[in-house]
Specification:
143 residues, three-stranded antiparallel beta sheet, 4 helices
């Protein structure tokens, strides 16, 4: 079998990939990034890319850093997250719990992508998580 060829959960030359998105491993996954902003102990974590088992620990670490630094509030902006799975949901629920333990406010800014919206709705979380509308963009006019 050629290196890089798929065989039952294993890509030759790549190791065991069971439980991972083979297309993602082969170069189709989105680039993941978190931009961390802080002002007067209010932290905004602007997430972009897929929130999955490979990236969820990075979100959890960013929330832990904010709480360690005495956050009064943590806002997670999912505006540019096209995909979320159970690991991403778990990371958000753990973030909410961690903020509560540290007496920090916790909010999620929803994205516009359809897949995360469907996941939140299907899991009954669209009414149970603390959502916040996105802040107006600089230079934007209203009404």
């Amino acid at each position: 079998m050629l290196p890089g060829a798929y065989r039952g959960g294993i890509i030759e030359g790549q190791g065991d990939l069971r439980g991972h998105d083979v297309m993602g491993v082969m170069g189709m996954m989105s680039i993941f990034n978190i931009v961390e902003r802080e002002h007067e102990r209010r932290f905004a974590l602007v997430v972009s890319g897929d929130l999955d088992p490979m990236t969820a620990p990075r979100l959890e670490a960013a929330v832990a850093r904010a709480c360690t630094q005495g956050a009064r509030e943590v806002e997670i902006d999912l505006g540019d997250v096209p995909f979320i799975d159970s690991a991403g949901i778990w990371a958000l629920l753990r973030a909410k719990e961690q903020c509560e333990e540290n007496r920090a406010g916790f909010f999620i800014v929803p994205g516009t992508h359809s897949q995360p919206k469907m996941v939140f709705r299907t899991m009954g979380l669209d009414d149970r998580l603390p959502w916040r509308e996105p802040a107006p963009q600089p230079g934007a006019t209203s009404g």
